[in-house]
Design a protein that fits this description.
The complex is a heterodimer. Chain A is α+β, with helices and mostly antiparallel strands. Chain A has four helices and 29 strands. Chain B has a four-stranded mixed beta sheet with strand order 1-4-2-3. Classes of the chains: A alpha+beta, B alpha+beta.
Chain lengths: 425, 184
């Protein structure tokens, strides 16, 4: 009898290990077993200022890619600038452990800049990419990011996400304003005119508008900034809070928090019909909705069980299901662009806030190491591999869902609440 | 007996002095800025700290206070909450009862109640929590008979800490409802 139970136990253990393993494989192929690819980027040929800025964008893109790792230029055997890789020098790059070498030339002619770039794949000794990117001199970033998108696509088959932006809130003195940069942190600048206290920024799906909270009229109200005209329109200024906007995939609706009916509940604003529909009904605090990519469900935070936890709401039926049970403080959930994962802020056992991820069905929660200094406000990259978040040191960092890195993209501090755009072409 | 009475009287006076001066220093976004009437109080303050519960009696003693002093008192006294909570403690209810009697005595006054949080929670959640705190205070004032039209609420979440430090003492002070007199 004893032997049978031991055998059964072993069988269950083996079976569950197999199941666990089987289920993890499709993530792990991309990730935990994936060694970052080493990329050498010798200096480009061209005007020094331009070369420096293009090289800087390339290196920052590699740093946030989650796939590539820049080899320290100090270790390059030939440290001079180069616009192409000579066939005879390949062994020099292999020797320092490079998987790819990027060489190129930058030219400025009037108001245009051209970036002629060549990527050599050392495992095959072939030219992976050989393209010229031409942009306006004031948007060099666009050309370099288009190149990096093509590079990551050709090298590992991932759709590039470098041509996307991150908007956050920047504290300047006693004021808080919108701040936007490319997702690698380059080209950052403040967007003024939203009032003295701006919070909860969120991108429209086409990357042309930003919804946000401002205390312009001495109440937390919702506004939309149109980035093509820089005009701001009021979206919701109901009595009480109007906060945590999240666009649906059409850009015509915004899920948000309103307290017009007495306490904070989740509502759907229809921007065209100019009405709002209440989705939750609880005595507790319901906030931070994030819509699934198909728009049929949303994830939100509620304190209805006594502590803030994450819930998924099926919009047609308004049925609510709790998905987090670990910990006493789980807030700010966001849906991944693929709709399979939810990232949120979790008060972990070390008594610090960490970014955590969980599947939509509530399984496989994992707490990311992150900076370890207190991380909050997660936002997914358009390809769903990366997560930007705000650290308690006042800077924005990028990690990946496999927890392999923590790359700072801002300097100086004062930054909170990042929101990652779609790819902007 | 007489000596003892003198002692109690001294404690009440000193705690009142400490109360007025101590609170005026941490005033935030006051509509009226009132300078503390006494200056020598700071040296006595540390030893008087344990006598703080007496300060309610101190307020009673200040019956002859001017309207400006009364408003300063009203605005300077925040009520405090536990982490992630918006229920009212017995001390908070006591403070609100005093605020209600002040409002009853001055029916022309309208107030705004600000709900605040400490930095530890997350921003989005704290924005909602701050509103719950302001509403708790408002609901209790209404329960005590204050006309709802005389009160309004606003949440600042964790955006307006009264103490910018990152420690328990600061957090305790920052989890608060703050009261602002709008119309005199």
């Amino acid at each position: 009898m004893k032997r049978i139970s031991i055998l059964t136990g072993m069988a269950i253990l083996l079976f569950s290990t197999l199941l666990w393993g089987a289920d993890r494989i499709h993530i792990d192929i991309q990730a935990r077993q994936f060694k970052k690819l080493n990329v050498a980027v010798p200096s480009f040929v061209g005007p020094p200022d331009l070369v420096a800025s293009v090289w800087d964008i390339c290196s920052k893109d590699l740093a946030v890619s989650g796939v590539f790792s820049l080899i320290d230029p100090q270790s390059y055997i030939d440290q001079g600038p180069m616009k192409e890789i000579g066939a005879g020098t390949l062994k020099d790059w292999i020797l320092i452990g490079a998987d790819y070498v990027i060489a190129g030339q930058v030219d400025r002619q009037g108001a245009t800049v051209s970036f002629s770039v060549q990527v050599v794949e050392l495992s095959t000794a072939k030219i992976l990419l050989n393209t010229v990117y031409t942009t306006n001199a004031d948007s060099v970033y666009r050309g370099v990011h288009a190149f990096m998108d093509a590079f990551i696509g050709k090298a590992v088959g991932i759709e590039g996400m470098f041509s996307s932006k991150i908007i956050s809130i920047q504290k300047k003195g006693t004021k808080k304003q919108l701040y936007g940069s490319w997702c690698d942190g380059t080209g950052g600048k403040a967007i003024q005119g939203g009032g003295d206290l701006v919070l909860n920024p969120a991108w429209s799906p086409d990357g042309k508008k930003i919804a946000f909270v401002s205390y312009w009229r001495n109440n937390p109200d919702l506004y939309i900034l149109d980035l093509s005209t820089y005009k701001v329109g009021t979206v919701s200024n109901e009595k009480g809070i109007n906060s945590t906007p999240c666009f649906d995939r059409t850009g015509d609706k915004i899920a948000c928090t309103l307290s017009i009916d007495g306490n904070p509940e989740i509502y759907m604003l229809d921007l065209k019909k100019k009405n709002h529909l209440r989705l939750t009904n609880s005595w507790a605090t319901d906030t931070s909705p994030s819509l699934a990519p198909d728009g049929r469900s949303l994830v939100f935070c509620s304190s209805r069980a006594g502590t803030p936890q994450i819930y998924v709401l099926d919009i047609p039926s308004k049925k609510v299901e709790r998905i987090t049970f670990a910990g006493t403080y789980n807030t700010e959930p966001v849906f991944s662009p693929n709709g399979d994962l939810i990232a949120f802020t979790h008060l972990a056992q070390d008594r610090r806030f960490h970014i955590a991820i969980i599947r939509v069905d509530g399984s496989r929660m994992s707490v990311l190491k992150g900076t370890g200094a207190g991380d909050e406000s997660p936002t997914f990259s358009p390809d769903g591999r990366l997560i930007a978040f705000a650290c308690s040191d006042g800077n924005i960092y990028i990690t990946d869902i496999f927890d392999t890195m923590s790359v700072r993209i801002t300097t100086g501090g004062g930054f909170t609440e990042p929101s990652w755009s779609s790819v902007i072409r | 007996m007489i000596k003892l009475h003198k002692g109690i009287f001294l404690i009440i006076v000193l705690s009142l002095v400490f109360f007025i001066s101590g609170c005026a220093k941490k005033g935030v976004e006051q509509v009226e800025e009132i300078t503390p009437p006494e200056t020598g109080a700071t040296t006595e303050a540390p030893s008087m700290e344990i006598e703080m519960p007496e300060s309610e009696e101190g307020v009673e003693v200040a019956a002859g206070a001017t309207i400006e002093e009364e408003i300063a008192n009203f605005q300077d006294r925040d009520i405090y909450f536990d982490f992630d909570k918006f229920n009212l403690s017995p001390e908070a209810r006591k403070a609100l009862a005093e605020k209600a009697s002040f409002l009853n005595a001055h029916p022309e006054i309208k107030i705004k109640i600000e709900g605040h949080c400490d930095e530890r929670g997350t921003r989005e959640y704290n924005l909602a929590l701050g509103e719950r705190r302001a509403k708790s205070a408002q609901d209790y004032l209404i329960f005590l008979g204050i006309n709802p039209t005389r009160t309004s609420t606003i949440t600042y979440g964790e955006e307006r800490p009264v103490d910018p430090e990152h420690n328990e003492a600061a957090w305790t002070k920052n989890r608060r409802a703050h009261f602002v007199v709008l119309v005199k």
